[in-house]
């Protein structure tokens, strides 16, 4: 265990972010780790409580409690405290093939379930994880690890997000020959063309892809088996199993008057093209600029926050983020006890930046949009928004109604729709005659991951709907196990 009295002696401490004024001038990562001695002290805070919900990865009320990868958290915390970083890496890689991704972008359900967090701030599990893996890269501990043997069977993985990468990693280790086909021009899925560079540097993604290549996985970009019938038939004949890790990329639309005006975009299209511009140092015709514009982001989740932060870096004039739900409380409610996911108000990086630059939190709660209004050139010039009220209806359903007379019109030059996703794109399921579940995801049971078509499997957001990187990695791991049983 860490230090028996560590949680009493040391306070939780996280690395510092670069100042807002400095970091909004670029797209680089801005979160710094503590010094080595300070991080070791943080490892000492784990009390090896004997009931490590932090690593349980169970669902309570539909939300993850504890690490979905079952990371061996008390063990690696202890090894951080003992400054045995090689062994800490070994323990971490037993359950998580890509800690450099989760150590940066995971919302850390482990920390909501940490026993120390019952009455004081949780152990800094996520930061300890990142410290172990970043140190391993810096010290050159992390090397390609070739599979011990190869069998004759071949698997095609379609889609190269965290689910596809994780599935490929484990299949490769089982000895299969793995070919990954990605429709984009770069590998990584939303790790590459979704999550902005300031949260996850694209060099961190590329660095891992290089290791996977050295380990024997083949990657092919600009390939889409669902669009090209000849190529699809070739893949279906050539491989012993096919995994669709194609994500849940169909964005939720807003069907209101003015939706088709110039200046109304889906959030991921906006974020993707901004990253492409950064990587190519070239603006193509799809690039969307918020420079000197009044920006309206619709959706209060992570994607919306990424849009706020990106539009600030592009030099927007103002930014508002509409959220239809109520504001979360500052403290856990009695109805949301430990070790459940902590449903409290968080001020994420985008909001922190807007607060400092524009003097207020960009989030406006209980607000919805009624209409987008055009100038005489077909461009959006304003939006009519309205307040809503949440209540429980007669059937017990929590729902909302618009508050009459609460409309206001705000000046808007760009709207970014970040209202979540509605499952798989139809052309993918149609091209392979795949059954969908009632949420529009490719239908397959957890643990089996088999679709209705012989030898076709699915995992990640494509199967569970838009989720988290940590769940995508878990699904990839479990799908690889199921395929191994199928092909064995
Ligand atoms: C803007 C944004 C920010 C996010 N931030 C976070 C965060 O901070 N933390 C977190 O944990 N999660 C975050 N998420 C969610 C997380 O990124 C996803 O849950 C995760 O990437 C899902 O992984 P996946 O591999 O299933 O799918 P994806 O990452 O979506 O990858 C699917 C891949 O399949 C490819 N593909 C699709 N169809 C085909 C085809 N027919 N042929 C070939 N290739 C195809 C796509 O191009 C894509 O590359 C965020 C999501 C978004 C949109
Ligand atoms: S992957 Fe996420 S949930 Fe698991 S230990 Fe790391 S930060 Fe916690």
Describe this structure in words.
This protein is 34% helix and 16% strand. Strands 5-4-3-6-16 form a five-stranded parallel β-sheet, with helices on both faces. The protein has a five-stranded parallel β-sheet with strand order 7-15-8-9-10. Strands 11, 12, 13 and 14 form a four-stranded antiparallel β-sheet that branches. The model has no long low-confidence stretch (mean pLDDT 96). By secondary structure, the protein is an alpha/beta fold. It has 18 helices and 16 strands. Helix 9 (162-174) links the parallel strand 3 (154-158) and strand 4. The protein binds flavin-adenine dinucleotide and iron/sulfur cluster (SF4). Iron/sulfur cluster (SF4) binds next to helix 7 and helix 8.
Quick structural summary:
The chain is α/β, with parallel strands linked by helices. The chain has helices at residues 6-9, 20-23, 36-43, 73-81, 85-95, 99-105, 109-112, 125-139, 162-174, 190-193, 202-214, 229-238, 267-280, 302-313, 349-358, 426-431, 461-464, 469-487, and strands at 58-60, 63-65, 154-158, 177-182, 218-221, 241-244, 264-266, 294-298, 318-323, 363-365, 367-374, 380-392, 398-402, 408-411, 414-417, 456-458. The protein folds into three domains: 6-139, Alpha-helical ferredoxin (Fumarate Reductase Iron-sulfur Protein, Chain B, domain 2, Orthogonal Bundle); 154-249 and 422-487, 3-Layer(bba) Sandwich (FAD/NAD(P)-binding domain); 264-417, FAD/NAD(P)-binding domain, CATH 3.50.50.
């Amino acid at each position: 265990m860490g230090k028996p009295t560590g949680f009493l002696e040391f306070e939780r401490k996280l690395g510092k972010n670069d100042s807002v004024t400095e970091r909004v001038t670029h797209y680089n990562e801005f979160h710094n780790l503590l010094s080595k001695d300070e991080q070791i002290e943080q490892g000492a805070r784990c009390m090896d409580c004997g009931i490590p919900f932090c690593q349980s990865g169970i669902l309570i009320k539909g939300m993850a409690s504890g690490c979905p990868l079952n990371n061996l958290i008390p063990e690696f915390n202890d090894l951080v405290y003992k400054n045995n970083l090689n062994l800490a890496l070994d323990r971490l890689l037993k359950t998580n093939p890509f800690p450099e991704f989760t150590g940066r972008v995971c919302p850390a359900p482990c920390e909501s379930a940490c026993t120390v967090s019952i009455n004081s701030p949780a152990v800094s599990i996520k930061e300890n994880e990142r410290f172990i893996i970043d140190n391993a890269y810096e010290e050159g501990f992390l090397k390609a690890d070739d599979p011990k043997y190869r069998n004759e069977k071949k698997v095609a993985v379609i889609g190269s997000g965290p689910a596809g990468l994780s599935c490929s990693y484990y299949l490769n280790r089982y000895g299969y020959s793995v070919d990954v086909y990605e429709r984009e021009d770069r590998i990584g899925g939303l790790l590459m063309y979704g999550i902005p560079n300031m949260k996850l540097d694209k060099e961190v993604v590329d660095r891992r892809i290089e290791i996977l290549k050295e380990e024997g996985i083949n990657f092919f970009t600009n390939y889409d088996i669902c669009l090209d019938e000849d190529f699809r038939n070739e893949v279906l004949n050539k491989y012993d199993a096919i995994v669709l890790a194609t994500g849940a990329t169909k964005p939720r639309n807003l069907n209101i008057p003015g939706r088709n005006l110039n200046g109304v975009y889906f959030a991921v299209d906006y974020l993707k093209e901004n990253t492409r511009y950064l990587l190519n140092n070239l603006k193509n015709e799809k690039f969307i600029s918020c420079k000197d514009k009044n920006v309206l982001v619709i959706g209060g989740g992570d994607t919306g926050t990424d849009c706020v932060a990106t539009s600030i870096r592009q030099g927007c004039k103002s930014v508002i983020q509409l959220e239809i739900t109520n504001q979360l409380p500052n403290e856990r409610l009695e109805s949301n006890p430990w070790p459940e996911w902590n449903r409290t108000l968080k001020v994420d990086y985008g909001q922190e930046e807007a607060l400092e630059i524009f003097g207020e939190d960009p989030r406006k709660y209980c607000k919805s949009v009624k209409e987008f209004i055009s100038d005489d050139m077909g461009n959006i010039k304003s939006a009519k928004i309205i307040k809503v009220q949440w209540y429980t209806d007669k059937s017990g359903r929590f729902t909302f109604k618009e508050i009459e007379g609460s409309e206001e019109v705000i000046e808007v030059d760009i709207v970014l729709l970040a209202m979540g996703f509605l499952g798989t794109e139809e052309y993918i399921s149609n091209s392979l005659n795949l059954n969908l579940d009632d949420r529009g995801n490719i239908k397959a049971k957890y643990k089996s991951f088999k679709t209705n078509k012989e030898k076709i499997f699915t995992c990640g957001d494509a199967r569970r709907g838009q989720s988290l990187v940590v769940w995508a990695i878990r699904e990839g791991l479990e799908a690889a196990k199921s395929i191994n049983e199928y092909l064995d």
